Amino acid sequence: MAYRLGVDVGGTFTDLFLVDEGDQRQWRVKTPSTPSDPSQGVLTGVARICEAAGIAPADLANVVHGTTVATNAVLESKGARVGLITTQGFGQILHLARSQTPGPLAGWIIMVKPDPPASLADTREAVERMDARGNTLVAVDVAQVEGIIGDLVASGVESLTISLINSYVDGRHEQQIADIVERLHPGFPVTISSAVLPEFREYERTLTACMNSYVRPQVASYVDRLQGALSDLGVRTEVDILRSDAGVMTPAEAARNPVYGVLSGPSGGVAGALYIASRAGFPNVLTFDMGGTSTDVSLCQAGEPTIGRETTIGQFRIKVPSVDVHTVGAGGGSIAHVPQLTGALRVGPQSAGAEPGPAAYGQGGVEPTVTDANVVLGHLPADLIGGEMSLDVEAARAAVQTVADAMGLSLEAAADGILRIVNENMAGALRVISVQRGHDPREFALVAFGGAGPLHANAVAELMGSFPVIVPPSPGLLCALGDLVAGFRNEFAQTLIRLTAETSDDELREILGGLEARAREWMVAQGIPSEAQNVEFVADMRYHGQGYEIPVPWAEGLEERFNALHEQLYGFRMPNTASEIVNLRAVGTGDRPEPELPEEEPRSGDPLPPGTYARAELHPGARIVGPSIVTEFDSTTVVLEGYTAEIDRFFNLLIRPEAS
User: Fold this and answer.
1) Which residue positions does the secretion signal occupy (predicted)?
2) Mean pLDDT, to the nearest integer, of 368-376?
């Protein structure tokens, strides 16, 4: 038997999803996360799920892990002390940064500029220079470089970044300095910018490389510790790590370039949602992942996730390929309050978190939250997680009563108001990724997951017009399933900056051929068989004179495709302005066997009347009339009045307006 395990570590729970590819059996486990050392929660979960399946850890053929270690290191400012080596005269590159400031027009007045990952005190300038065509103007001064390396290491830096001007054209000077570091200090962690981001724009390239160095020691230590502990437990396979772009990488690559995994967790949910929806026949979906603190949403079209070229982590915008996820501070723990100044009800972004949590959790929380409002309205059962957690209904009512008293409403009206406001907040996030980017949300299904997503999905879909609502089996563990359906992925880029009309087919074929060769070489090194290898090409394009570009999938009529995409995103095209290609990239992917999930022919029967149902007792073909509640181990689904829910052949719950 071939057993494959997906592991997703969240802030509160560590989720595990095990499948037996031989007979399609599945096992699911939720275990408390251990923030001080996430590997302990993983080990506990692996032991529990292997025991539940009646197998030994040595029987696991594949383990894929979505982790927030890199994310937390940045958000909590607990990364390494980074030393930066750059070209002479460019020592303040991270501090000059860009002119954009967050917030309104006066944002520059109130902005507190974050400290970059490498301070000026830990920055050194190397004597070397290369021009924009890759020609050496000043050779690397080996003696001088040896001196600044020794100075940085002696000062106590924990990792080094080498980011030289114009190294995106040719990285040999960076590699030469990295070789000197290895000669003087074997094994010292070094990041070279031309390997992490071989693209122009020196600030973004330097920041991304420094962020890689910032999280590298912590991630490398975690991966090594986890792999060792699992080996001691009896696991024989390596632990693959989920990337931010919903691909996977080996533990060695994760330890070397952890910046590729800063959004590892959210990408797993998108991958799982897209897999479930595509099987059910819905390639265009909006993903809706609602947890305790926040909600993550994303748009997927034609069976593919939307991959962005940059992402924001903390206060830094770094250039790494990642699933385009928009996050809003709305979750089950979001606190409702009535400011005295306005007297208007507000929900979030403050959250009760996991400790003390909502009042209903009985852990000392007293402030009214979204979860408490759901309890008051009867949307949540008294027991959660298979009876492992009991809710304090009276505490929830008392908390929501404070809102009711402040607004002169009944208890139920106050609870309903809380839910209406948080639903509008989440619908606003969905509009950002759909309407504001030229997509009609009515042409997309809504995939609801996370612990709280199915509770609110019907109401949010009503606001968006996005049907059907798809609630997969065990929606609270969908991220762990997403880990299993992800394939290997890596990108190889080259900056060009050339007007489209001035490029020749021979020149482009030569560049793309070289990028493809690098992608194929990487896939062979990963052990990906030739029949599972895929290479796709993308051109980053813009109008001549623009400052930023958009990725355009490579195909015939590239310029027209760019014009159409620009018009979709921004509402106009510039017919009298030349377009130009900025970067060319090859995306290498290695397909892996997807888990075979249960499937059953639907049975006919009369619709079930409004009520509360256990999902495990529903068979494909079963139809439920709203208002109803469907409960399961890790989540609860609300079906509103005027809607019906049907179990499809893949055991998904599909919610549609009753009239349809």
Assistant:
1) none
2) 95
Is 535 within the bounds of a domain? yes
CA distances from 57 to 1, 43, 62, 252 (A): 13, 10, 11, 21
Asked if residue 577 and residue 466 are part of one domain, the reply reads no
Position 456 in a domain:
yes
Dihedral, 135, 138, 143, 147 alpha carbons, nearest 10: -100
User: Of 404, 419, 434, at which residue does a domain stop?
Assistant: 419
Task: Note whether 382 and 476 are same-domain residues.
Answer: no
Q: What pLDDT digit, counting tens, does each position of 51-83 carry?
A: 999 999 999 998 999 988 888 888 788 899 999
Same-domain pairing of 140 and 246: no
Q: Give the Cβ contact number of residue 457 at 10 Å.
A: 29
Where do we find the tokens 């592991």? 7
Please give the Cα distance from 246 to 242 (Å, whole number): 6
| Buried-state track 326-354, b at ≥16 Cβ within 10 A, e below 16 | bbbebbbbbbbebeeeeeebbbbebbbbb
Structure tokens at 218: 């912590």
Backbone angles phi, psi at 221, to 5 degrees: -65, -40
Position 598 in a domain: no
Task: Say whether both 109 and 166 belong to one domain.
Answer: yes
pLDDT tens for each residue of 310-364: 888 878 889 999 999 998 888 888 999 998 888 899 998 888 876 788 999 888 8
Q: Residue 203: inside a domain, yes or no? A: no
Are 288 and 433 contained in the same domain?
Answer: yes
Supply the CATH number for residue 65's domain: 3.30.420.40
Residues composing the chain: 660
Q: What is the mean pLDDT of the chain?
A: 91
* pLDDT tens digits along 113-161: 788 999 999 999 999 999 999 999 999 999 999 999 999 999 999 999 9
Domain span holding position 171: 81-188
CATH of the domain at 579: 3.30.1490
CA distance 589 to 81: 34
Per-residue pLDDT tens over the stretch 40-54: 999 999 999 999 999
pLDDT in tens, 606-632: 899 999 999 999 999 999 998 999 999
Q: Which of 142, 170, 188 is the last residue of a domain?
A: 188
What is the DSSP code string of 250-275?
Answer: -HHHHHH-GGGGTTHHHHHHHHHHHH
Is residue 85 domain-shared with residue 157, that is, in the same domain? yes
Q: Which residues are registered as beta bridge partners of 207?
A: none
Phi, psi of 73 (to 5 degrees): -60, -40
Give the pLDDT confidence of 417-454 residue by residue, as tens digits. Answer: 999 999 999 999 999 999 999 999 999 999 999 889 99
- Is residue 347 domain-shared with residue 398, that is, in the same domain? yes
pTM of structure = 0.89
* Main-chain dihedrals φ then ψ at residue 198, nearest 5 degrees: -80, 60
